[in-house]
Amino acid sequence: MKKINKDIIIVGFALFAMFFGAGNLLFPPFLGLITGKSWLIGFSGFILADVGLSLLAILAIAKCSGEVGKIFSRAGHKLSIALGCAIMICIGPLLAIPRTAATTFEMGIQPIFNNFNAVIFSVIFFAITLLLTIKPSKVVDIIGSYLTPALLIALLVLIGMGIFNPLGNIEPSTIHNVFSEGIFQGYQTLDALGAVSLGAIVITSIANKGYTKKEEQFSITFKAGLVAGAGLFLVYGGLTYLGATVSTMFDTTVSQAGLIVSITEMLLGLPGKVILGIIVALACLTTAIGLTSATGQYFAKLTNNKLKYEVVVTVVCLFSLVVSNFGVSTIIQFSAPILTFVYPPTIVLVVFTLFGDNIKNDNVFKFATYAALFISILNIISDFGVNVPVIKSLPLASLGFNWVVPVAIAAVIGYFVKSKNNSQSKLERKSA
User: Fold this and answer.
1) What angle is formed at CA 203 by the lines to CA 197 and CA 208, rounded to 5 degrees?
2) Which SS3 state, helix, strand or coil, does residue 135 take?
3) Rounded to whole angstroms, how far apart are CA atoms 402 and 389?
4) Within a domain: residue 349?
5) pTM for the whole thing?
């Protein structure tokens, strides 16, 4: 019993660190700034959309024994491969992994070492990432046992200083829909998208620890998810409060990165830059390690190991090294439409996977997924300046969830359309 509790804590710590990237460091303080005295209400919405959706994704992966493809399989073979690859490329070498290195350089290195070469830093960052990723069975232990405690200590020093020495009075909220804004900010972290891939690493680690039964793996994953969720709850809450304490000092025009840098400097002076650098470096490194390993495992499984894990993670690190030198703002700029496209259908399939045993008709999955993709495309068109009135008039549009009602309607229609290839029926026949 003692061993299983230790393993749950290690896996939970690793999940916390892999979720907590530098982007997560930026959102909560800004949310606190704009919500002021109502920061707790905004924070509640943030936790619901961020941690809540992420835990659902982790559980869905656990239910599928760590195989990402199974989450998408009932939407159709071709679509499942396309979505799976799109997600892994997005959260892998195209967007998320390069952003971790670029963010570390811009927030953690440049403020301390003005003349440090960005390319040299990228080489060092991805050399460390590759070194700690090349053996997938060790990824969770390395992060959970060593990197996460260091990250937590650095974060708690910053938050503790802000709690015991508040920087200022907390002003009333500058916005009206506080809870809605919290949900929107949590949604924008895109942690649930990352959770789909990170869950595969967790299951691999749990299996390598000797827990081979599906029920054991699901139970440990669930408990580890609670550990990670509790850590995120405390850290996000502390950072949101820090933002609220400077609500008299900054307005909404301040950049999110500039806000956290300023808070750190005001609390800790010049050493604050060093502590922030450590926090950002650890947060980004743990996320890069987790996502690189997840990408390697996915493509190795997809190709029946024709593409070796070691080869994939090496290519991912090299490609990410190049992309990271475009800078954070450039990466974010071209990432937005891609993420808008893949996020809604992913969440739809995650939720449906959790209740899939009770859904016999594959057309429920297919119709709902295509509806989510269709609304995503309209959202992208609208974001590029084309007038699409129906998008803004859909229910929940103000929260960024305008795809929910169309998906629900499509799922109901799919339920009444007979499926020719019912995956659930096939599985039942095989088990019989």
Assistant:
1) 135
2) coil
3) 12
4) no
5) 0.77
